[in-house]
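lol ok so funny story. i was supposed to be doing the assay writeup but got distracted and ended up predicting the structure for this chain instead. priorities right. anyway since i did it might as well share w the group, maybe its usefull for someone
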Amino acid sequence: MKSAAALPLLLAAAAPLAAGEPAPPATTEAARAIDPRDVGVGTLAPDVALVFPGQPSRKLSELAGPGGLVILARNEDCPVSKRQTFDLRAVGEAAAVAGMKTVLLNVALKDGETQIRAFDRMATSADYALDADRSVANALRIRTTTEAIVLDRSRTVIYRGAIDDRLGVGLVRAAATHRFLIDAIGAASRGARPLVEATTAPGCALELDAPPAPPKDSVPTWHGRISRIVDRHCADCHRKGEAAPFPLTTLDEVRAQKEMSAVVVANRTMPPWYAGESCGPFSSDLSLAAADRDALLSWFRGGMPEGDPKDALAPRARTAGWKIAKPDVVLRVPEPFTVPASGTVKYQMRWVTASFAEDRWVRAFEVRPSAPEVVHHILVFARYRKGDPRSRTQAPFDGGVTGFFAAMVPGQGHMEWPDGMAKLLPAGTDLYFQIHYTPIGREVTDQPSIALRFADGPPREEVRTRGVFNAKFEIPPGAPRHKVTAGWTFPERAKILSFMPHMHLRGTAFRYDLELPDGTRKLLLDVPRYAFDWQLVCTLREPLEVPRGSRVIATAWFDNSAANPHNPDPKATVRFGEQTEDEMLIGYLDWVPLGD
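and the output, tada:
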């Protein structure tokens, strides 16, 4: 039997369409995360003019508040859009706190007076604009009658998609579990990127004109497009106080690095991303979209024009401190360590006493060295107190194969989980830092820290980390492609969130496969060109549910030959060990137990 919530949608679908009206929804659909690169997140929105009843038209650049602008597509003839009406007040309030203006854009092909009266009853403070000819919807590529767009004050698209996951096509929940739009508004107010930057927007589809083709042989400009690509893909690391060797935050800085930048963009060395195209998709994908790569290379070849300063990117409010929102606690390694100017530094092992008196649920963490220029990576492990049930699975420290808690790897040092997810830090737990230093030609002192932000209480879903490992292998001297495998079986139904493969200097390739209880195999992650310098976390855009008894198989390949330029000693028989001259096979994965 169909639900009562779905009935109006079915009736709407059965009604005849007026010419040019939006197509009603036809199937059940919930909001889901999508690739932000596919819908223009991070680009400059066109400065289109909006029409307001009884008022002069105004451009987007004239509408934005000091924090930016929120645009909400509306059409009360669409059942899903109509049901959203009472969600708008919370959005308007969040936008006002963030210094953003809100515009409700009526994309119905009529005058909209009836809808204006309905919104007056809501007593919203939002402006109400009409788009009877769909010129604004076409310019902004608005896909449905429920889509929301967040712009910063320089008209850069910060988020686009659904308000939340409470409503969908044939779907009405009592409450939202993910407040995509309000979370995006909050992130934008802090100068941060939203945890989810783009989603589908279930509603009635809008029929748009084909986008206009760009002028032939046109060259993008710094202010119009290139600054936004660089800010999004380069500047988090290439700025003062971070690990990259030179800054890329201004036009002059990028021009100074033209030759090197063009080479690493063309050969896809930068931005770093090594997952194969046959797996994923991953929300942590750092790579450039093909169109962005082409735009950068065209700009380099075309003389790197500056463009119109009125389109300049608003400066990001990046901080030299924590990238996560204000942490609840910061734990610091007790003593600083002086990294010598040259030579090889053994991994430094440091204990940090947390010993909270009660269990804590960690919603976000960030691992941060005080001197990032000399830190290759930091792995943080939890050492459970005696008597904790988890301590039974943890032998005396075993090279990091159990108790993995957090990490800082090149380009990625923080993690935040959505509402309703958190990782347990049991009472009495201490933390163990494994730090890999790389000398840079001068002495540098470093004292790492970890910042934690807590959930209010136990979450709906507990995030756990498992290391799929093999600690008993031997790599023969000179072996050019030595294969080692490891496996682990889920003890219950589960949801997989992310992967982080870990090897040392001889590691060349890594993959995760899933073997289901019926014997079916599925590729989870393929890293055909593993790079020790970039140990990236691969977070699935949509978590993967697996049944009890599913087995994750981690496979690693090592090159112990003289042809490997990173090999410390091709004549050595190599075994598992913590130091860089040893090797490891650990396939970390974050997962959520779902019960049976």
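The first strand starts at residue 49 and ends at 50. Confidence is low (pLDDT under 50) at residues 1-20.
back to the writeup now i swear
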